[in-house]
Amino acid sequence: MEAYLVGAVRTPVGRRNGMHAATHPADLAAGIIKSLINGVRVDPAAVDDVILGCVDTVGPQSGDIARTAWLAAGLPEHVPGVTVDRQCGSSQQAVHFAAQAVMSGTADLIVAGGVQNMTQVPISSAMAPQGPYQGSRGWAKRYGSDLVDQFHSADAIAAQWSITPEEMRRFALESHHKAIAAIDSNRFKTEIQGAEDDECPRRDTTIERMMALRPLRDGGTTTAAMSSQTADGAAALLIANGKALRTHDLTPRARIRHLSARGDDPILMLTAPIPATAHALRRTGLSIGDIDRFEVNEAFASVVLAWLRETGADPARVNVNGGAIALGHPLGATGARLMVTMLHELERCGGRYGLQTMCEGGGQANVTVIERL
């Protein structure tokens, strides 16, 4: 069996202490799930499972937020939910698990997505008071006892690929410009539920303002301007197999052509999208030139710039509506947000193939290739 994308919606991404700050994460996800179900006009009782990505599942994000969000939406109690944590790739992995389930025939119709309210649950809340590697003898024997730091990793990538601060600033500024252009031309209107626009893009940012910022670590080159913004948001997609399409008279919008995840050096941490992309292209038989649109998560400017150098992808096809540097990175929701945006962008431009990838904690990356129908 094959897996199809039937519906895809998201909230506007809110900046920290912004539009979603007071909204309980379960309610944030519940609202977008209801919009998805109502938009597709499918009986919610037919959904087999709800799979949501979420990172830092403590406090209001604890207790299996996928289940809580579905019930908070007032939807049928017999539908279960499960929450996934593959760090930044959590909701992309939720889509993968959903696709694998419907492809196997063990389920026919699944809601997949993600949610994160980083205002209410600050980043790394689940890692206090002790991080995931501290105290592990096996980890220390293999990788040493130094702190694993994403900011160090971003700087290390910039150094290894000889990426200059000037290049990173230009990339970051372009991300804002592309996001603002997308907002002003209403490109996101079909994918965003509600009247609000994304809150994070900065219309007044300049290279000069970026140059005034100090590096995030002593001796480093990466600044906050070259990094993804902490943010709040949710996104959801409806994943179906052919049986569900026929049973519920659903119209597929895209086919999931490929899904995989690969690992790389966990200390360098953020490089896995490079081998993961190569692996996906080998498995599909596609070339980098066959892909019409790429969504490569902008955790840091250096991550995408290194990926571009290694893959040879056309920059004009990458993050054409801006990325997380401008639009924000609500950790558990970003994978689904990227998928929603990529699907709508393929429909807008008439492209056939879209490839999404993102770096993840532990030195991992997911890759999804979709084919517009």
From TrEMBL:
Membrane-spanning parts: none
Domain Thiolase N-terminal residue range list: 4-241
Active-site residues, record numbering mapped to chain: 88, 329, 359
InterPro entries referenced in this protein's UniProt entry, alphabetically: Thiolase, Thiolase-like, Thiolase_C, Thiolase_CS, Thiolase_N
Keywords: Acyltransferase, Transferase
Stretches assigned to the Thiolase C-terminal domain: 251-372
GO MF entry, a single one: acyltransferase activity, transferring groups other than amino-acyl groups
PANTHER family: ACETYL-COA C-ACYLTRANSFERASE (PTHR43365:SF1), BLR7806 PROTEIN (PTHR43365)
Family that this chain belongs to: Belongs to the thiolase-like superfamily. Thiolase family.
Protein name: Acetyl-CoA C-acetyltransferase
Organism: Actinoplanes derwentensis
